[in-house]
Every structure is written in C-alpha cells, then in structure tokens.
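Quick one:
INPUT:
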C-alpha cells in the first residue's frame, strides 16, 4: 500500500516541465547565444538553492485511457532561492513556449511571485523575455472575443516598489507588459545586441506609423541604456547582467524593514590619499576625473555605478565606506561642466527615491554649476524637472553628507542641503553663489558695460575685483559654511558619517512613503 506510483508520476510530470518548449526550440535558442529560463535562474542564484513553485502547471493532453501523454508547460518559471545566501524570489519568462506571451501562461504564476515577494519581504528578480505575460491577438481567437485590458495584480507590483528591492533584466526582445515590468523596478539591465525593450515591436510600428524599423533601432541598448534612461545599465552578456544584479542587491536590505547590510571591510578607514591635494586643478577652466576622486575616498573597488550613460553630467551609484553601504551622488565636470539638465534631474529623482526607500545614507560630492542654461535646456523643461529634483532631495529624510568640491551655484546648488544633512564639508577649491562671477558680471553690470568705451577692460576689472570674494574662507568667517577641510581628511570623515548614519537608520526602519516611483 505505497504511494510510489504517484511519486513516479510526479517525477514524470516534472520531466515534462524540464523540456520547456521542446528540444528543437531550446536548441534554436542556444544556437542564437541565449540561455533558457532554467539556465538563467541556475546561473543567477547560489548553486542548489532554487526551489521551484508551480512546475506542474501546464496544458495537458491525455489518451483514451486517461493517461497523460504530453504537457506544454506554462511559460513562466518561478520560485524561491538565494543570492549570496540571502533569500529572494525569482521569476522568468520561458520564451520557448509561445514567446512568453499571455496565451502561453497557465494560472497566475507571475502574480504568485509578486505576492510571495511582498508577503515574505524578499527582493524579487524578474527575468523578462518576450511580452512578459502580455497580450497576443491569438488570445482573441481562442476566446472568440476581445477582452478589456486590466492590469490584474499591478497594485501588488506598486506596493513592492515601496517594500522590497525590485530588479529586472531584459534578456531578449521585450514588449508591452514585459517592457513595463522592466521599467517598474529599482534597477534594470539589458544585454547589448540581444535585448530590446519597446512598447510595441516593429510589426505594430509598421502598421501604426508606416515606418520600417528594426528591433535594435527601435529599442536596443543605445536607445534605452544610453538614451531614454528607461533601462539603467547594459551588459555584454547574460552572465554579466546576472553579476550586476547580484552586485546591486548586495548593497540593499531585504526589505524596508531591515537596515542596509555591512560587509567586512578590507580597506583602511583612515586612509588619506595624497593625490586628493591636487586632483582638482587650480585653473578653473580645467576638469578632473570624478570617478578617480571617488576611488580615492570610497572603499577600494566598491562603487557600483547606475545609469552611467544617461544624464551623464551626474554620477549615481552604490558604494561602501568601512563596509557600510551608502548611496553616492556626484557631478562629472567633463560633461557640460556637471550642470543639471532634464535627464540629470530625472536621474537624481530616482536616485533619491531609491536611497530614501531603503535607508541608504547618501554621500554627495558637489561640483554643481546649477541647472543647464540655453535654448535647448529651456525646451527640455530643465527648470521644471530640476525643481522636481530639488524637491525630491528635500522630501528625502535619509541621513546625508555633502562634500563641496568646487562649484555650488543657483537653485540647483540647493540639492546639497535639506533634511537629514549630518555634515557639510568644503574643500579649499570650493566656490559658491547665486551665479558664477563671470556670468554674474554680465547680468549685474550690463548697463555699465554697454556704456563703456572699453567693455572688455571693464569686464576684466570687475571680475578681478570680485574674484577675491569667491574664497570659501570668506564664507567660513561668517559661519556661512561649517567647516573647510584638508581634502585628505575626506575619507575618515565619511567613514565616521557612515557609522553614525547606519546607527540612525536602524531606528527608522519601515516604509517611508507609499507608491515610490519606478
């Protein structure tokens, strides 16, 4: 009286699931250099930790005796696993079954994954390939009718954004709902030349707009990771994409109810780099490598940069100070002098939201000439989007510290302050004001310059008279800035900040606000 026959039947059905869309489709995918969904999950997670949910879900065929002869498994594979020994939920589209479209799904496995992540307060990783559970006109034929689109379960996806880290990888052509699932994340990555993301693919574009367009031109990595900012990062391969996911999650807590993790540091917290004394040129017309500067101050090799090719005048990323996880915001003076344009503003808003949601103390390296000026900046709405960025900074309550490296001008310069500011330190190279002196002279002394017989000489004279007033020591004399420091003291001060900030965030755990933006 054993249940062995049923156990053997269970194994047989599990074997059907392992076949996915069939040998021919699997081999075709591998020949194109793509991994199957099960291979992807295996390479993302710690070995041996994946516990699948819903493996038996599928469309079955039985013979006249009621014996199962064939199963086409659901095109979504999901379950629990671990990344660096921390629990996560993972779900991936199986493009070998109906290309990942809705009519290849069985049951609400995708919804289960989202609800399991929310209920268990675990990060969720979406491996998106195809429409990601989105629609297909073949569904209309099967139903013999059309259907009203409703985003079932989207309320769960929205709440996930303010509760647990949400990560998405676009691993092939991704359209419609699949593209939305990629965008509705805290971090997203796509693979160069393999992944494309679009609202609708080339056939729909051709019929709607009468334009022939290829998948890469429509939604490749140059469009989104280097253009629109719809996807944060790009990767050379799927393996590199998985490495980026693992790295991103290593800085974040499992949920907003936990503090960001600390790793055992392998760097001297008191390290004082001599190169910091000369990294900023005395000639104000010359630039420097801000990433080199960050490397001299943060734990060695710890900077994980996000959206590097979008809003390039601003650098955003995650890093460590004495092993403590922090968010890092900086300006790149080699790109538009570090000015904040529309793209930079949107990048800053997302970054402040990320840090505030997950209690990541924020370190801001300030070399900010303010909002971008000019006709094109005005057309792009730089002021409106810039004000939104400043507002996000003042809405955030996460502890922060600002290192004033060089320029701090105008309304945009106000980003460096706001609630949660635990420290503000200026380097001797810093300067600030409502306007830079050069442009300010043109605005403030316009009539004198227009009336002068030698406006160039007068302009030079006025700039010379005012240049002495730009010294940060003048501001310090009036206690307009709290402290000017030797640049070599920056890392020890930031390590002290990180320790204090992490003590503070442990007293403030829980959601900051509902419905954080993707």
């Amino acid at each position: 009286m054993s249940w062995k026959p049923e156990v053997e039947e269970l194994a047989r059905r599990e074997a059907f699931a392992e076949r996915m869309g069939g040998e021919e489709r699997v081999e075709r995918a591998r020949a194109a250099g793509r991994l199957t969904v099960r291979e992807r999950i295996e390479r993302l997670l710690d070995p041996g930790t994946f516990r699948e949910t819903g493996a038996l879900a599928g469309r079955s065929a039985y013979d006249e005796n009621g014996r199962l002869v064939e199963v086409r498994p659901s095109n979504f594979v999901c379950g629990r696993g671990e990344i660096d020994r921390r629990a996560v939920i993972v779900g991936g589209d199986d493009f070998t079954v109906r290309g990942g479209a809705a009519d290849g799904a069985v049951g609400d496995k995708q919804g289960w994954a989202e609800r399991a992540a929310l209920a268990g307060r675990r990060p969720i990783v979406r491996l998106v390939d195809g429409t990601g559970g989105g629609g297909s006109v073949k569904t209309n034929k099967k139903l013999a009718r059309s259907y009203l689109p409703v985003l079932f379960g989207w309320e769960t996806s929205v709440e996930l954004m303010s509760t647990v880290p949400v990560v998405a990888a676009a691993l092939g052509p991704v359209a419609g709902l699949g593209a939305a699932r990629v965008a509705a994340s805290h971090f997203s990555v796509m693979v160069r030349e393999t992944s494309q993301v679009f609202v609708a693919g080339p056939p729909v574009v051709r019929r709607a707009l009468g334009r022939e367009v290829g998948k890469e031109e429509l939604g490749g990595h140059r469009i989104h990771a280097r253009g629109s900012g719809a996807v944060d990062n790009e990767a050379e391969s799927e393996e590199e994409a998985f490495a980026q996911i693992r790295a991103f999650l290593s800085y974040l807590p499992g949920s907003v109810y936990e503090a960001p993790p600390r790793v055992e540091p392998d760097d001297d917290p008191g390290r004082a780099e001599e190169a910091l004394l000369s990294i900023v040129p005395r000639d104000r017309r010359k630039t420097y490598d801000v990433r080199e500067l960050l490397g001299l101050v943060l734990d060695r090799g710890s900077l994980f940069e996000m959206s590097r090719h979008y809003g390039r005048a601003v650098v955003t990323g995650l890093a460590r100070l004495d092993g403590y996880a922090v968010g890092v915001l900086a300006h790149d003076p080699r790109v538009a002098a570090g000015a904040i344009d529309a793209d930079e503003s949107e990048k800053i808003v997302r970054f402040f939201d990320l840090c505030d949601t997950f209690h990541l103390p924020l370190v801001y390296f300030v070399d900010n000439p303010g909002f971008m000026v000019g006709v094109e900046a005005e057309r792009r709405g730089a002021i409106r989007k810039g004000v939104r960025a400043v507002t996000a900074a003042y809405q955030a309550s996460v502890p922060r510290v600002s290192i004033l490296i060089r320029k701090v001008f105008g309304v945009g310069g106000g980003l460096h302050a706001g609630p949660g500011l635990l420290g503000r330190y200026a380097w001797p190279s810093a300067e600030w004001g409502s306007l830079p002196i050069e442009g300010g002279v043109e605005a403030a002394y316009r009539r004198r310059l227009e009336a002068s017989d030698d406006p160039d000489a007068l302009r030079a004279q006025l700039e010379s008279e005012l240049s002495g007033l730009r010294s940060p020591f003048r501001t310090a004399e009036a206690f307009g800035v709290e402290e000017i420091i030797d640049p070599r003291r920056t890392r020890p001060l930031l390590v002290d900040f990180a320790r204090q900030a992490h003590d503070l965030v442990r007293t403030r755990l829980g959601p900051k606000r509902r419905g954080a933006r993707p």
